[in-house]
Structures are given as C-alpha cells and as structure tokens.
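Batch manifest, entry 17 of 40.
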Amino acid sequence: METINTAKLLEEVAKEYGKTPEEIRAGIEEAIDAAWNNPDPEVHAIWKEMSPRGERPSVEEALLYLSALVATEELMMAERLNNNSLDYRVKI
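Output type: structure tokens
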C-alpha cells in the first residue's frame, strides 16, 4: 500500500494557512466526524469505499484515500483531454 508523509503534509498545510499542524489535524478529525455521522446513504457508500472494515478512518487513512481519489481523477481528466485532442484533430 502506498503511504504519504502525514506529518510533513500537515506541516505544509499549516504553514500555508498560518495554523499549527495540530490545528489542521483537529480540523480534519472534525470533518471526518461530521461526515461519519452524516445519515445520507450516498455518504455512507463513500465511507464503505474508504473503510471497508466499517470503522471510522484515521486522519492518515482518510488522506491516503482522498489523495488516491484526486490522483485517479487527474489521470481520467488527462485521458479525456488527450482523447478530445485526438478527436479534434480527426475532425479537422
């Protein structure tokens, strides 16, 4: 499984927003709690993807899942752009 350096990430985000890493971690924990307690079935479906064991994810697990999600979306977007470019060239 891929890992991320959570401590370094929290330090970078804290620096960017003028906060401490502890404040950033606490904010992420609060967001996880709020989402974890959301009764929306669509939100629960996302949690099942993020935490197949059905346990509340840690900050590290949530960040790893979200970073993988963003990377996947970026790859899909790049692929769509490449396909659109090819389609454009064919139509000319």
